[in-house]
Design a protein that fits this description.
108 residues, alpha+beta, 6-stranded mixed beta sheet, 3 helices, globular
């Protein structure tokens, strides 16, 4: 399915399992990611979060819907992998500043 996403959001999903430096280029230096009750602040923490997630589980994420609401880009994605409860539909709330991701919150 084609989704018309901002470039940095589209790149985030395209690089989700790719090179961590390429993924980090989607984010501002002081970006914040909230996932599973934890907050990761700054590029080093975000790269570590993604590295640990990728090492812990094998998964794919397939975005299937998006909307722009209250200044945020919200993407629904089906995540399938070897983790408990798979597959699961997650919502990704992106706040962008300029062309980069300033914050991302991932919730069921």
């Amino acid at each position: 399915m084609f989704l018309d996403l901002p470039a940095s959001v589209d790149a985030y999903f395209a690089m989700d399992k790719g090179d961590l430096d390429d993924l980090a280029r989607c984010f501002q230096d002081d970006a914040v990611v909230k996932d599973e009750g934890h907050a990761y602040i700054g590029l080093a923490a975000i790269k570590q979060w993604k590295k640990e997630s990728s090492e812990r589980y094998t998964y794919t994420s397939e975005p299937f819907a998006s909307e722009f609401k209250d200044g945020r880009t919200i993407v629904a994605s089906r995540v399938t992998g070897n983790f408990p409860g798979s597959p699961v539909d997650l919502r990704y709330f992106f706040n962008l500043e300029s062309t980069k991701i300033a914050s991302l919150e991932i919730i069921p």
